[in-house]
Amino acid sequence: MAVDLHSHSTASDGSEKPAALVEQALEVGLKALALTDHDTQDGIFDARAAVGGADLELIPGTELSLEYDEGGMHLVVLWLEPGPGPLQDRLEELRHGREQRNELMAQRLTELGMPVTADEILLEGGPGSIGRPHIAAVMMRKGYVETIEEAFELWLTSGRPAYIGRPRLTPEDAIQLARRSGGVPILAHPHTLGINRADEMTDLLTRLIPAGLVGLEAFCAGYRRHEREGYADLARRFGLVPAGGSDFHGAYKPGLSLGTGYGDLVVPDALVDELRTHAGVT
Ligand code: AMP
Ligand code: ZN
Ligand code: FE
Ligand code: FE
């Protein structure tokens, strides 16, 4: 049986409603699905209702973007129960940072000759946690770019003209807050860290493990077999649990399927039991 430990719904920058994600997970025959919307847990209630009595373990979670100048560092937190808690209480301010950033990016795009309003972005994103994929979709609809990927590559990625940062947690703070909240912190899609030397990766893991890091994503869509095996070996060498998932976003990441990623992804279900042993306030 396969599992998927990284997915996004309309509660953040996925195109599918939480209940639709659960339906797809059941169709694909997943044994476990983690809902890891950016900076929010709002989707988990509808997702839980959709599971009903079905044989699917639905894991509540979130995904955080962390302060890291060298590249994009994301943390997936699993078994984070919605409601009050040390990390849960910080999510709202992170979403507020997104709102302010979106307004600034709308202004910047307008200055760059691509008029976009904050309202257009809000309309695209709906009530959820709004992100750059929503801005990319507005740009696409208005004919400024042909694809979401192109919007990122030319304008929205860090270092590009329309990129504007937002307040983030430091890696240590995020990991500690996750553990104090009973969650299981996992370093996401490690290729986006921008690290290409073994000693840099060693230094980073040596820094994050004392803070309480539990897992490292190895089973990511788009990775080749030797990359998945390499990251899984790396995780084990540092006493971390390999993890992973499709990072499904529906139409915001075309071609990607829940569970199977680009068709060849299998996240072993035994990892769920192993990761779960670290859940709960310690
Ligand atoms: P934000 O949360 O606003 O910082 O946007 C980050 C999200 O944008 C990621 O979670 C991805 O879903 C998406 N993203 C980042 N880089 C790219 C890219 N090059 N192409 C398409 N989507 C991307
Ligand atoms: Zn996303
Ligand atoms: Fe991510
Ligand atoms: Fe993600």
> Which structural class should the secondary elements be placed in?
alpha/beta
Q: Major β-sheet, in short?
A: 8 strands, mixed
Small molecules bound: adenosine monophosphate, zinc ion, fe (iii) ion
Strand content: 5-15%
| Rg for CA atoms | 18 Å
Principal-axis shape:
globular
Q: What is the share of helical residues?
A: 25-40%
Terminal Cα span:
30 Å
Strand order, sheet with most strands: 7-6-5-4-3-2-1-8
- The number of strands is 8
Q: Which stretches of 5+ consecutive residues score pLDDT under 50? A: none
What is the count of helical runs? 10
Would you mind describing this structure in some detail?
By secondary structure, this protein is an alpha/beta fold. The protein is 38% helix and 14% strand. Helix 1 crosses helix 2. The longest helix has 21 residues.
